[in-house]
Design a protein that fits this description.
Blueprint (H helix, E strand, L loop, with lengths): L3 H4 L12 E9 L3 E3 L4 E9 L7 E12 L3 E10 L8 E10 L9 E10 L6 E9 L5 E3 L6 E8 L2
Antiparallel strand pairs: 1-10, 2-9, 3-8, 4-7, 4-9, 4-10, 5-6, 5-8
């Protein structure tokens, strides 16, 4: 059995490759509408990586809708600035409705990305929204919530 005495003095650098070193999560609970491109959603998580070579695994669940035909696109951007749409784009997922689209027809998407942290400064991972083909896209329509989790993985 692993006891707290055996864990005393264990540091992150002692962890084997593939170990999860830290986790951060976020949730956005209010409805967000979007009509343009490269729009910061308000959903972001952050931590300070222990190594610039650490791998980061990011995952989000997205409940969304559109009031017209066309695609909603979701992706992550990561970098050392939070609260905006800056950073390096990773991951990508689209949802679409055809025919008589309705904002009461919810769509669900999962978004994930795996990348190298590249920094030992605070790393922000943000979900970005992009509406294609006109109309308005929505997240968190009808009381649903979007969530995000990021993990630092030892290499």
């Amino acid at each position: 059995a692993i006891t707290s005495a055996k864990l005393a003095g264990l540091t992150r650098t002692d962890m084997p490759s593939g170990s999860v070193l830290q986790v951060a999560s976020a949730e956005i609970t209010g409805e967000v509408s979007f009509t343009g491109t490269n729009i910061y959603s308000g959903l972001q998580a952050s931590f300070t990586p222990t190594s610039s070579s650490s791998k980061i695994f990011a995952i989000a669940t997205i409940q969304n809708a559109t009031n017209g035909t066309g695609r909603n696109e979701f992706y992550f951007k990561h970098g050392t600035t939070g609260g905006d749409n800056s950073g390096t784009k990773v991951g990508d997922v689209y949802t679409a409705q055809s025919g008589s689209a309705s904002t009461t027809n919810l769509m669900s998407a999962s978004l994930s990305a795996y990348f190298t942290s590249g920094t030992t400064s605070t790393l922000y991972v943000k979900m970005i929204l992009h509406k294609h083909d006109g109309g308005t896209g929505y997240i968190n329509k009808i009381g649903s919530n979007c969530t995000m989790t990021i993990m630092e993985i030892a290499v």
